[in-house]
Amino acid sequence: MASGTDDTVTVASFAEVLRAPLARPVLAAAMLSTWGDHIARITAAAVVFSWTGSALATAATFAVALVASPLGRTLLAPIRGRLTPRACLIGSHLIAALLVGVLMVVVATSRSVLLVLTLVALIGFVAGPAVPSSRLLLTAIVPDRRLHTHAAGLSTLAVQVNQAIGLAVGGAAMSLIGGTKALVLDLLTFVVGAVVLITVKPPQPTVGPGAAPLPSRLADLRRGWHQVRGSRALTAVLGLLVANALAIAAPAAVALPYAAQQDTSSTWGGLLMAAPILGAVVGLLLIGRLPAERQASLVLRLALLTPLPLLVTILEPPPPVVWLAWFGCGALQCHLRPLESAFAGLAPTAGRGGVLGLAGVLSVVVTGAGFVVAGWICERTTPAATVGICAVVTLGVLVLLAAKWPQDVLPGSARPGAETAPGRPTRPT
pTM value? Predict the structure, then answer.
């Protein structure tokens, strides 16, 4: 799903953050790490597809990486809490480089899909703590506390842009130099990132916040589940947050098979996967310029529009046309930003951590399942039909949610077509 923040991002604030002496090397290391993670994913997926011709196995490669990253962020949090962010990042980069080296050996000497999936999952797992550690380090080295919020916003935006670049570079490398050499490039991104971080000397040692033990986190999630079930507003917003997961996952799941069916290289596979991510970045920047109430009033309309561009894929147009359609789908995901803000605001103060944690877990699980479902459908139809089917199913779910949408959850977010008398408050239907 597109990540949002509660901050209005401005170019001037970004420039101020980048003027901090150590900000640029930290962001460069984060860039290399994200590139490496996504080059590994697309290279492994392309190798698996070349071995098996199976869309399901290809989609599973992305699904395991997607689920492994937040899992690593959670399970490795106690270790991250005992280390400085810089030490955590250096260790994460070096372990990921080692795993990529093993993956190179497997790709060169074996045709084991299970081993490839396991290694991709492990790379994602050890990369899990990298994003929060990078943000902690970035805010620690930005001397002006006014800029901490903008530093976090810049980090979020950079992650999304670098995901797209990593997928595009990985697809091109796989096409031009082959899987093993593409993984050499991948290994170098992690090694160079670690070297850059070694040169960074924060003004004072910083240690990440301590992490709650796993049983406590699971208890928080259970409490969060009960709180969401007991609130119609939270249930509605959470449903809308995850409703687009299938439509979001489908393009990435079938991009490589679609490119192969069109007799194009894996370069186009990477570019197609990058299209929704780049669209999401543009959409977030555009909606961030609107007042909060205007953002909220657009949520349902944008949500219902999100799967529609994907329907163009049914006609099996050439890759550039598909790229534009998938970019449009990504841009429309900007409705998730005000929706996430509303969800955080609706969550009770006492149990907010559990409620937000539950939303994060469900988002990852549903999106991972969306990859697998899209791959399964593609095995029985075509890549183009798969995207169309997922778009139609998603649109049906969104229409049902919109029909029962509580009108007082977001300002001005009445159901499309619903009207209320002037001066009278809206009520949940």
Answer: 0.81
Residue 343 in domain: yes
Q: Is residue 216 located within the same domain as residue 194? A: no
Contact of 139 with 152, CB cutoff 8 Å: yes
Read off the pLDDT of residues 55-99 as tens digits, 9 standing for 90 and up: 999 999 999 988 898 888 888 877 777 788 888 889 999 999 999
> How far apart are the C-alpha atoms of 78 and 80, rounded to whole Å?
5
Domain boundary among 203, 227, 256: 203
Contact 331, 283 (CB under 8 A): yes
Same domain (yes/no): 192, 225: no
Within a domain: 128 = yes
Q: Where are the alpha helices (DSSP H) in 288-351?
A: 292-305, 319-332, 336-346
Residues 112 and 224 placed together within one structural domain of the fold:
no
Asked if residues 323 and 262 have their Cβ atoms less than 8 Å apart, the reply is no
State CA 119 to chain mean position distance: 20
Give the C-alpha separation, 259 to 166, whole Å.
18
What percentage of the chain has pLDDT greater than the value 90? 36
Condensed to tens digits (0 to 9), the pLDDT of residues 233-288 reads 888 888 888 888 888 899 999 999 998 888 776 788 889 999 999 999 999 888 88
Least confident stretch, 88-102, 136-150, 243-257, 369-383: 136-150
User: Domain containing 22: what range?
Assistant: 7-203
What burial letters (b/e) apply to 11-21, b meaning 16+ CB within 10 Å?
eebbebbeebe
The C-alpha angle 130, 37, 54, rounded to 5 degrees, equals 140
**What distance in Å separates the CA atoms of residue 303 and residue 308, rounded to the nearest whole number?**
10
If one counts every other C-beta atom within 10 angstroms of the C-beta of residue 366, the result is: 19
**What digits encode the pLDDT tens for the residues 291-348?**
888 888 888 999 999 999 999 999 999 999 999 999 999 999 998 888 888 888 888 7
Looking at residue 175, its amino acid is S
